Amino acid sequence: MSLIIKAARFALNAHREQKRKYTGEPYIMHPARVAGRVTMLSNTTEAMIAAAWLHDVVEDCGVKDEQILEEFGLPVADLVVQLTKPSKQFPHLLRTERERIDCEYLATVPDGAKRIKMCDRIDNLNDMAGAKSKFKILYVEESRRLVASIGGADSELAAELLAGCERLLLTVSP
């Protein structure tokens, strides 16, 4: 079985009961879209596509890093770890502080992980039309800081992410 199909099936099982917050659709549609977008990037590796499928399983499903390593090997496990927010270790901190920690960390990871993260954020922005206006504004501000931190990894994705920010702001109620 290919690594990508194995990752897709693993993600499907891990996210089986989850729904997307703003759309109510099955959560697996999010990693599917992220993986599809990553597939279309130049210089994409099989490990990057597999990691795109798996990017939320450690953070959101209780899957351990060691299980990803055992199941998918070091290149995929490294990417998944790089995409897992280090601030999850500090739930007591304010969101602004956790976001700063995550942004600083993402600035240090390899470009492949940065590119997956931008695809992830683009998909999140596209799903947020139903969010409250105050949160949309906060998320756009965080997304712009993310682009400032990691956008150099892929200027086209950075531009797409910023365009997504502008589209989301158009849905903000006065």
Number of helices: 10
- Provide the residue-averaged pLDDT: 96
CATH topology: Hypothetical protein af1432
Structural class: mainly alpha
Give the CATH class. Mainly Alpha
Main beta sheet strand tally, sense and closure: none
Q: Low-confidence parts, pLDDT < 50 over ≥5 residues?
A: none
Query: How many β-strand runs?
Result: 0
How many discrete domains? 1
Query: Can you say what the CATH homologous superfamily is?
Result: Hypothetical protein af1432
Return Rg in Å: 15 Å
Q: Terminal Cα separation, in Å?
A: 51 Å
Could you estimate the helical fraction of the residues in percent? 55-70%
Strand content: under 5%
From the structure above, extract its key features.
single chain; mainly alpha; globular
Any overview of this molecule?
This protein is mostly helical. 67% of the residues lie in helices and 0% in strands. The protein contains ten helices and no strands. The protein is globular and about 50 Å long. The relative contact order is 0.12. The mean pLDDT is 96.
Chain-wise SSE layout:
Layout (H helix, E strand, L loop, with lengths): L2 H12 L14 H11 L6 H9 L2 H5 L3 H8 L1 H10 L11 H12 L4 H17 L5 H18 L4 H15 L5
Helix pairs in contact: 1-3, 2-3, 2-8, 3-6, 5-6, 6-8, 7-9, 8-9, 8-10, 9-10
Brief digest:
This protein has 174 residues and is mostly helical.
